[in-house]
Amino acid sequence: MADTRENFYRHMGVYGVCVSDNSILVIRKILGPYTGKYDLPGGRLEKMESLEQGITRELREETGYTIQKLENIGICDFSVVWTPQENRVENLHHIAILYKIDVSLEEITNTVESFEGQDSNGAIWLALNEVTTNNSSPLVLQAIEWIRSGTIPIVSGSFDYRI
Predict the structure, then answer these.
(1) From the CB of residue 160, how many other CB atoms can be counted at a distance below 10 Å?
(2) How far apart are alpha carbons 6 and 99 in whole angstroms?
C-alpha cells in the first residue's frame, strides 16, 4: 500500500446550510470521498468567482434553488482518508466555508443542471433526526452541530473512508 502522505490533497469550498420544517437540504454524492452519503450543497470556486457567487452558483446547480438570504456562519476543516477507484489511499484536507442560506421553496426548478464532472445526484430535504455518521458526510455532521449549538466545532475532525 502506498504511503498516504504522498497522496495528499487540499480542497477548499463554499457550502450552504439550509433548514426548513426540521429538515436540512442535502445532496446525494456520487463521486469523491463521500460517495453514497448525503452532503451539503456547495463546492469549489471557479476562476474570478467570489465566495457569494460560488455558493449561489453551486446551490443552483446542485439543488435547483435560488438563494434568498445568505449569512456566513464560519469555517471548519477536517481530514479524510479514502480509497478512490484507483485503489490508492488518499489523504484529503477539506476546508469548508459555511453559509446559512434561505431559499424560496416555491421557486425551485424541476431540473438540476447536468454537466461533466457532476458529483451529486439530486437534492432532498432530510429530517434532522435521520442524519447519522453512516449516511452523512462530515460537512452535514458539522452543520447539525451548528444547528443544535449555534457554533461550529473548533477542533478539526478526522474521518476514515478506506475500503
Answers:
(1) 9
(2) 32
Give the pLDDT of residue 58.
93
State pTM to two decimals: 0.86
> Percent of the chain at pLDDT above 70?
86
Q: Which three cell numbers stand for residue 70?
A: 445568505
Rg of the chain over CA atoms, in angstroms? 15
Cα separation, 161 vs 154, in Å, equals 22
CA distance 101 to 81: 29
For the chain, what's the residue count? 163
Contact of 145 with 47, CB cutoff 8 Å = no
SS3 of the chain: CCCHHHCEEEEEEEEEECEECCEEEEEEECCCCCCCCEECCEECCCCCCCHHHHHHHHHHHHHCCCEEEEEEEEEEEEEEEECCCCCCCEEEEEEEEEEEEEECHHHCCCCCCCCCCCCEEEEEEEEHHHCCCCCECHHHHHHHHHHHHCCCCCCCEEEEECC
Distance in angstroms (rounded) separating the CA atoms of residues 140 and 38: 7
pLDDT exceeds 80 at position 59: yes
